[in-house]
Amino acid sequence: MRSYDSVSQKSRAGPCAPQPAGPGELRSAPLFAGVDEATLSRLSADARIESLQDDDVLFHQGAVVTDLAFVLSGYVKLLRISSSGRQTLIGICSDGEIIGEAPTDADESHTLSAKAVGATRVLKLPAALFARLVKESPSLCAAVMQNSKECIARLLGEIESLKSQNADQRLASFLLGLCPPGEDRCRFRLPYDKRLIAARLGVKQETLSRAFAKLRAHGVRTETRNVHVESVLHLADQCDRLGRPPRLAFGRRKTEKRHDAA
Questions:
Q1: Closest by alpha carbon to 79, among 54, 106, 114, 37?
Q2: Which residues form a coiled coil (predicted)?
Q3: d(Cα 187, Cα 171) in Å, to the nearest integer?
Q4: What is the pLDDT of residues 167-189, one digit of tens each?
Q5: Does 198 share its domain with 234?
Q6: Is the pLDDT confidence value at 67 over 60?
Q7: Which carries the bigger pLDDT value, residue 203 or residue 1?
Q8: Using CA of residue 9, residue 14, residue 16, residue 22, what is the dihedral sign?
Q9: Can you give the CATH number for the domain in which 202 is found?
Q10: Which residue range forms the structural domain that includes residue 169?
Q11: Which is more confident, 10 or 164?
């Protein structure tokens, strides 16, 4: 993934006062789908919902984990900070996803920093309580293990994409993931600006612009953050072909002549 420099943060009022959250809000996160009601009730006793603005910091890399947070709406970017202060975008969390890692012991530290992308609502649980209940509740322990497996699978998929796909294919795959299900011709709005999309796909901004331009030939039109796809099926069919070099008849004839000569 390429380095990602965040823009300077503007002065603003802090996050809105937290609101209490109940078992229903916790159940909306996939992690808690199979957790028993008693455990969920204990977790929700001190759960709270916070509203954030663009670039508000949830936590800093190296800080002690005090809360486990989930995205209720909006997006949160995860950043890795080097010793020189350089920032690299590691991932972007969306609805229902854990922000960072689930703590299983007290006094753990964050391995990443997290910032809101646009208006965002997050659900927070006390980390110490969560870590204790992981040891006491078989259903919560199983949920955390399953979530870890899914995170590893997702990271492997991203690594495979970075190593096996070019910029055109990565962009096409990203757009296909945003297309509404069941629609072949569709319109949608990009979830965040193209600068952040470029960082997520591991390409430079000018490379992303060229990739968007190439997709026009495949029925993808953009106007600022609005996207129109003429045919999702056609775009999906072209996704793999975008990475194939053109086959030139002249090149094949040369190969055949060398074969015949041999």
A1: 114
A2: 145-172
A3: 16
A4: 999 999 999 999 999 999 999 99
A5: yes
A6: yes
A7: 203
A8: positive
A9: 1.10.10.10
A10: 165-241
A11: 164
